[in-house]
Design a protein that fits this description.
The protein has 309 residues and is mostly helical. The protein has a domain of 214 residues: Tetratricopeptide repeat domain (Serine Threonine Protein Phosphatase 5, Tetratricopeptide repeat), CATH 1.25.40.10. The chain is 67% helix and 0% strand. It is built from 15 helices and no strands. The longest helix is centred in the C-terminal third of the chain and has 17 residues. The N and C termini lie close together (11 Å).
């Protein structure tokens, strides 16, 4: 049986990952498709093509994307930019494809070229800012995101990414404003509300954080990180059954989520259920080890050693 655990005994989530940075999806000839993180369509003004060849290359690139042929898509988009350097859609799609391949610098360069081809292309500024976040260039990312919002104040994607920048910079009050705006303008996206909850957690505003996480879960009931974060607050408040329910839902949404198994083990230890604790802590330890998270695998082993044999 462990002693009185502080909230810090539960592993904290990584505050920013590639999956959390908002990008909008590939550009068609007359519309855009946004990624699942922030699904919201916005009309854009396309640069005029100097002929059909560049547009045909973009269309071919999009077909390659649908077929999962990323290298071929990049080659097609590059060809389109050569045929018509002023075709912003070609640069924009190239940036998205390069980002999928993990080429962050080249991705940012392509988005920048899209903004040069069409200085009113708000989404290109938004995705340029997102690429710079991933490259940890926060100051420049903030500039481009703010430019995007000058062009389109209702672009939820830009508010969300700006919120990420402000959160990482420690400007929590401004981050709250940005995430609230993102939640308003992207009414089906759970990520802004999730990050709003994380900011409230940092401010030790537990009830506000709980409300934000629950709102995120209303938008996406399978949001594993939101279930986990909600459970971590309930655990700290001593509501063990409710915390355990949140951790279970987190593992149901993501069966490889080691943090949630570990946290459930702590609940079982507090409830004096050593067999249950041993089972989930061992499982968490194995997951941490397989995921190369050796620090938390060691912590799980330490908790296992506290269980009476």
């Amino acid at each position: 049986m462990i002693g009185r655990d502080r909230p810090s005994t539960i592993p904290m989530l990584q505050r920013l990952s590639r999956s959390l940075v908002g990008f909008c999806g590939f550009l068609l000839t007359s519309a855009i498709i946004c990624s699942p993180e922030l699904t919201q369509a916005h009309p854009v003004r396309l640069a005029q093509s100097n002929g059909q060849s560049a547009e045909a290359s973009v269309t071919q690139g999009l077909q390659f994307i649908q077929q999962g042929k990323l290298n071929e898509a990049i080659a097609a988009f590059r060809q389109a930019t050569k045929l018509n350097p002023q075709m912003s859609a070609a640069h924009y799609n190239l940036g998205l494809a390069l980002r999928q391949q993990g080429q962050l610098q080249d991705s940012a360069s392509a988005f920048y070229q899209a903004t040069q081809a069409d200085p009113s292309f708000a989404l290109a500024f938004a995705n340029l800012g997102a690429a710079l976040i991933e490259g940890n260039n926060l100051a420049q990312a903030q500039d481009y995101l703010q430019r995007s919002l000058e062009l389109n104040p209702n672009l939820g994607l830009s508010h969300y990414n700006l919120g990420l920048v402000l959160e990482l910079q420690g400007n929590l009050e401004a981050a709250i404003v940005a995430f609230r705006a993102a939640a308003q303008f992207s009414p089906t996206a759970p990520e802004p509300l999730y990050h709003l909850g994380l900011v409230y957690q940092k401010q030790q505003k537990s009830e506000a954080a709980i409300a934000a996480f629950r709102q995120a879960l209303q938008r996406n009931p399978s949001y594993a990180e939101a279930h986990y974060s909600l459970g971590s607050i309930l655990f700290a408040q001593g509501d063990l059954e409710a915390a355990l329910q949140s951790f279970r839902r987190s593992t149901q949404a993501n069966p490889t989520y080691a943090n949630a198994y570990y946290a459930a083990g702590l609940v079982f230890l507090k409830q004096n259920k050593p067999k249950d604790a041993q089972q989930v802590l061992q499982y968490a330890k194995n997951l941490f080890a397989n995921q190369k998270n050796l620090a938390w695998a060691t912590k799980a082993e330490q908790q296992l050693k506290k269980i009476p044999r």
